[in-house]
């Protein structure tokens, strides 16, 4: 078992998956040092715009700014050359179109000099008019990146479920967004500011993950526990 | 003196009744714009409110709605309908009486809008909903009078503020509307009168004869109360004996969990099988109605209940009220006693049953206060702006409005009389666009200004969403509890989501007087099976929590200063003596701080006696200071007299914690990040309409789609800290936590006279705090440390290598 480490002011949890050395970052991003690749999932940019458009109350319109600034920090600290956004990057395609000029320029500046892939998600199933390549999935080395886990795949990194996990200790219950991992798949927590989570004890996640799966709770540093299955 | 119509007088005299002086008084003032009547329960208060209506409707020439009756409880509206029916039918008055609450059928509701009755009995929420319809002017045309019952209860919460905004709107529709308020005994009648009357109309206050002093004592038992705990199990045999001796006994508890446990224990000891029921707000409606019906029929000898039975429902022949646990404040005690013996001019009979020894002290202090007619209470302050935001949206749902008119209308409501135009504009802007410093997506704004200057909903369909979110009562999120069956078994009631989250399959808890086993969560329903166990895992779900008044606290401190305590039972006197021996008793002018290990954690207990709100604030400030000094606090709980903090490391020096400058410094910044602020934000954001709570089906459609209101709070704090909702949250928190002034006052009084006592175990006086509800977690370094420890332990246990 490895220890959490400090790297360039960043905390992470080192793990081995599909024969690769990866780092689960405290922000909820995944760092792959060998490829200098940063992977984030479920950014849900433009969520407050979409909610207002549907006639619901106008939420504070700062989530795109907040999500991008955390992403910028992670890119800065890792020095990533490759970026994979695992789908649901935009809350819907209309939200991607409605993104403000400032936010577009900011994304463009983050993309400069980087190989940037938007994996399609169920919220953003088509291409968006923002730089970077658009893919249904992406294979690098032994690893496949895709939005929704395929139950028969192996070596797969996915998002979609917004996993979170709960640990009970000393009479209190601590809930954090979490990475879920077993020998076949690695699920990333949602990275976007306006995202909730799905408890890993929900049947869909219990069924997807093997009995010996671990949940890595985000925090400083991130910490692993056997994936909680009982409600 | 005005003449009460002969038919009504005759009806009184055939029943052998005479008209009370205050009923005549109310009749004489029937034309006044506003009148407040303060009378004890059973004093014919309701009849006093309705006499003018009956007289005015006698001729049968009034068409449509004449009188609106508003009460805080649905059950009360139904009860009054029954009670009013009798004289109306017997006198043969041509009056149609109907009620309208959340329980009224949709068909009935629709018909009432088209063809309103003469007298409509309703609740503030249902009334507010009525004012949100476009046809409100037609429905309320001709309305003459509004009677607000139990207004003292409404005045304690935002429901009163909301009601007064609804009345302001009605008054705009019906300028000659006359208002009557009916109230139990209160400490500050003027404040209630200001709430009731259209500002700046005058409002006369009538005081009915309060009747004889109540017969109220502490129940004597053979067994002594325990040092701590809230169950009062020791008193079960004595309580059963009292039930046997009386016709009908009401047994009040301060929390639902306590009521459940007591009811369970009562039945275990109820060898004769006396018919005893339970009634509280977490029970399923059908179960509650069954108990209510049995009560009306006189089938029950006792009802174990909470505040859900607190108000003036006139049920059966109640001849004894038992209060289990400390009465917390004297006013509420007096009102509860009023439940017994609804015969005017007969003394009410009540027994106090302290659950533990600290409560013995509180009960004795409360009895002294009742004898001295020393009522207590805190002033409510200005009307909260989250309610105002909701009403702007409600106005918009009813149709286009002019901002000047709406502002003028709202300032006629007592709580909002000093609302400034700038404050109103902020709320309007919040409702229209969200009111953010960053102007995003204005094309989707909720309210738009028309060319003629009037405001209207951009999307008329939004009106339905607004109506679904009317109300100011904050249910903390609750989950339904059902017996496990193929297609969903019998509903038993509700528990709080937080309590449900703490359960693991196999845990047992009490609900509706039965022990059930937690089987699992299915969608949003807690599934359980029945268990024959005798002892459950304790139900920690909360009922209403009351604050002991500071007046009562002062009486308790005076009692502590005595050398001995002849007025207290021997066991309690011995308990205080023991506290004095192993530690100190709190004194005026000094601050007692105890430090001791308990249950594997370090504890600090601060006896500030500054009232629950100030002690809560102190808890926030102290844990922040302890976090900074590396003591790893984990959480705290506050009562009116003390704050108990637990954490990983022991406190060695108390004085630096209480340095007033350090406490004052950064009050804002550390209040900003804490759990109480987030809780307050969630409540205000829901009332103001930022968070919608009643979207049908929304919660089922996948929980990852919704996200916590804490995220919205954190986002606003970071990017828009002066947003109107953040201002409202701060105001509300200061109102809820009470201002820093009380803490400053306490510290100035104490100066450097701080007594830090280090002990090897919990003290007699601190023990009851462990069982207090409302624990506030501190999310700091201790949580990270615990998580690391638990991660290591769990991985080792599972034999996992990473």
From TrEMBL, chain A:
EC number, as in UniProt: 3.1.-.-
Enzyme class: hydrolase
Gene3D superfamilies: 3.60.21.10
Taxonomy, superkingdom: Bacteria
Pfam family, one: Metallophos
InterPro entries: Calcineurin-like_PHP, Metallo-depent_PP-like, PdeM-like, Pesterase_MJ0037-like
Keyword Nuclease: yes
The keyword Transmembrane is assigned to this record: no
UniProt-recorded name of the protein: Ligase-associated DNA damage response endonuclease PdeM
Native organism: Ruegeria spongiae
The encoding gene: pdeM
UniProtKB/TrEMBL annotation, chain B:
Record key words, sorted: ATP-binding, DNA damage, DNA repair, DNA-binding, Helicase, Hydrolase, Isomerase, Ligase, Nucleotide-binding
Entry annotated with the keyword Hydrolase: yes
Molecular function GO labels: ligase activity
InterPro entries registered for this protein in UniProt: ATP-dep_Helicase (IPR052511), DEAD/DEAH_box_helicase_dom (IPR011545), DEXH_lig_assoc (IPR026362), Helicase_ATP-bd (IPR014001), Helicase_C-like (IPR001650), Lhr-like (IPR017170), Lhr-like_DEAD/DEAH_assoc (IPR013701), Lhr_WH_dom (IPR045628)
Pfam entry (one): WHD_Lhr
PROSITE patterns noted in UniProt: HELICASE_ATP_BIND_1 (PS51192), HELICASE_CTER (PS51194)
Residues in Helicase ATP-binding domain copies: 26-204
SUPFAM superfamilies listed in its UniProt record: P-loop containing nucleoside triphosphate hydrolases
Residue ranges of the TM segments: none
Span of domain Helicase C-terminal: 235-388
Domain of life: Bacteria
Keyword Oxidoreductase (UniProt): no
Family: Belongs to the Lhr helicase family. Lhr-Core subfamily.
PANTHER family assigned to the protein according to its UniProt record, in alphabetical order: ATP-DEPENDENT HELICASE LHR-RELATED-RELATED, LARGE ATP-DEPENDENT HELICASE-RELATED PROTEIN
Name of this protein: Ligase-associated DNA damage response DEXH box helicase
Species this protein is from: Ruegeria spongiae
């Amino acid at each position: 078992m490895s220890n959490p480490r400090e790297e360039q002011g960043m905390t992470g949890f080192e793990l081995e998956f599909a024969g690769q050395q990866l780092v689960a970052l405290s922000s909820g991003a995944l760092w792959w040092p060998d490829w200098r690749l940063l992977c984030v999932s479920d950014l849900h940019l433009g969520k407050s715009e979409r909610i207002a458009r549907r006639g619901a109350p106008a939420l504070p319109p700062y989530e795109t700014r907040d999500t991008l600034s955390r992403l910028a920090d992670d890119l800065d600290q890792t020095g990533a050359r490759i970026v994979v956004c695992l789908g649901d990057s935009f809350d819907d395609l209309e939200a991607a179109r409605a993104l403000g000029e400032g936010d577009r320029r900011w994304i463009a500046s983050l993309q400069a000099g980087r190989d940037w892939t938007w994996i399609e998600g169920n919220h953003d199933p088509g291409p968006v008019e923002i730089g970077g390549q658009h893919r249904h999935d992406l294979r690098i080395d032994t690893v496949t990146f895709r939005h929704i886990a395929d139950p028969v795949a192996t070596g797969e990194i996915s998002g979609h479920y917004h996993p979170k996990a709960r640990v009970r200790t000393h009479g209190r219950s601590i809930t954090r967004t979490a990475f879920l991992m077993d020998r076949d798949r690695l699920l990333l927590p949602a990275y976007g500011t306006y995202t909730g989570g799905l408890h890993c004890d929900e049947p869909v996640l219990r069924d997807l993950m093997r009995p010996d799966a671990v949940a890595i709770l985000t925090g400083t540093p991130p910490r692993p526990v056997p994936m909680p299955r009982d409600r | 003196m005005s003449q009460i119509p002969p038919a009504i007088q005759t009806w009184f005299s055939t029943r052998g009744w005479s008209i009370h002086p205050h009923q005549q008084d109310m009749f004489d003032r029937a034309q006044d714009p506003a009148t407040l009547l303060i009378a004890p329960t059973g004093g014919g208060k309701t009849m006093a409110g309705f006499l003018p209506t009956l007289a005015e409707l006698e001729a049968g020439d009034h068409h449509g709605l004449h009188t609106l009756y508003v009460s805080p409880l649905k059950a009360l509206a139904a009860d009054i309908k029954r009670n009013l029916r009798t004289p109306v039918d017997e006198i043969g008055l041509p009056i149609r009486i109907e009620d309208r609450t959340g329980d009224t059928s949709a068909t009935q509701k629709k018909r009432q809008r088209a063809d309103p009755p003469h007298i409509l009995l309703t609740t503030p929420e249902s009334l507010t909903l009525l004012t949100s319809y476009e046809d409100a002017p037609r429905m309320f045309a001709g309305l003459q009078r509004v009677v607000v019952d139990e207004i003292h209860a409404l005045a304690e919460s935002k429901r009163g503020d909301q009601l007064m905004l609804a009345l302001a709107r009605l008054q705009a529709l019906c300028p000659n509307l006359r208002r009557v308020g009916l109230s139990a005994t209160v400490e500050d009648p003027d404040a209630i009168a200001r709430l009731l009357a259209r500002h700046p109309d005058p409002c006369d206050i009538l005081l009915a004869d309060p009747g004889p002093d109540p017969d109220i004592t502490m129940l004597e038992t053979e067994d002594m109360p325990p040092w701590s705990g809230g169950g009062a199990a020791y008193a079960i045999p004595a309580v059963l004996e009292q039930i046997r001796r009386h016709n009908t006994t009401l047994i009040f508890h301060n929390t639902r969990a306590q009521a459940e446990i007591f009811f369970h224990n009562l039945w275990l000891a109820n060898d004769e099988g006396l018919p005893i029921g339970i009634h509280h707000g977490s029970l399923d409606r059908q179960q509650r109605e069954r108990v209510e019906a049995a009560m009306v029929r006189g089938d029950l000898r006792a009802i174990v209940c909470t505040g859900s039975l607190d108000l003036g429902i006139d049920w059966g022949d109640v001849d004894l009220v038992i209060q289990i646990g400390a009465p917390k404040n004297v006013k509420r005690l007096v009102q509860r006693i009023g439940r017994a013996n609804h015969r005017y001019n007969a003394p009410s009979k009540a027994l106090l049953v302290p659950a533990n020894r600290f409560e013995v002290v509180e009960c004795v202090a409360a009895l002294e206060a009742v004898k001295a007619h020393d009522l207590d209470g805190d002033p409510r302050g200005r009307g909260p702006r989250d309610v105002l935001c909701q009403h702007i949206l409600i106005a918009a749902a009813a149709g286009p409005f002019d901002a000047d008119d709406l502002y003028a209308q709202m300032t006629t409501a007592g709580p909002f009389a000093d609302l400034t135009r700038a404050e109103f504009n902020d709320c309007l802007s919040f409702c229209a666009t969200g009111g953010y410093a960053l102007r995003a997506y204005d094309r989707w704004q909720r309210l738009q200004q028309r060319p003629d200057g009037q405001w209207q909903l951009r999307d008329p369909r939004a009106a339905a969403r607004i109506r679904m979110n009317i109300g100011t009562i904050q249910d903390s999120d609750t989950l339904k509890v059902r017996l496990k069956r193929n297609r969903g078994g019998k509903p038993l009631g509700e528990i709080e989501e937080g309590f449900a989250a703490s359960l693991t399959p196999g845990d047992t808890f009490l609900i509706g007087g039965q022990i059930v086993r937690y089987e699992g969560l299915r969608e949003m329903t807690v599934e359980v099976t029945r268990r024959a166990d005798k002892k459950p895992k304790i139900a920690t779900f909360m009922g209403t929590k009351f604050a002991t008044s500071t007046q009562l606290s002062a009486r308790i401190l005076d009692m502590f200063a005595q050398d001995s305590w002849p007025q207290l039972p021997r066991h309690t006197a011995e308990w205080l003596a023991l506290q004095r021996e192993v530690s100190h008793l709190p004194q005026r002018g000094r601050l007692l701080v105890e430090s001791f290990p308990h249950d594997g954690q370090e504890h600090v207990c601060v006896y500030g006696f500054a009232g629950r709100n100030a002690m809560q604030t102190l808890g926030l400030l102290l844990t922040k200071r302890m976090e900074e000094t590396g003591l790893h606090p984990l959480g705290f709980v506050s009562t009116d007299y003390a704050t108990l903090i637990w954490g990983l490391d022991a406190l060695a020096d108390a004085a630096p914690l209480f340095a007033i400058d350090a406490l004052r410094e950064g009050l804002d910044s550390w209040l900003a990040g804490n759990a109480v602020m987030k809780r307050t934000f969630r409540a205000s954001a829901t009332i103001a309409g930022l968070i919608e709570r009643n979207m049908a089906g929304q919660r089922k459609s996948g929980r990852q789609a919704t996200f916590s209101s804490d995220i919205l709070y954190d986002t606003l704090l970071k990017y828009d800290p002066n947003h109107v909702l953040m201002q409202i949250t701060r105001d509300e928190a200061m109102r809820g936590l009470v201002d820093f002034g009380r803490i400053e006052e306490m510290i100035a009084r104490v100066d450097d006279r701080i007594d830090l006592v280090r002990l090897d175990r919990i003290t007699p006086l601190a023990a009851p705090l462990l069982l207090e509800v409302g624990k506030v977690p501190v999310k700091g370094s201790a949580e990270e440390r615990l998580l690391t420890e638990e991660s290591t332990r769990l991985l080792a246990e599972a034999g996992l290598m990473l």
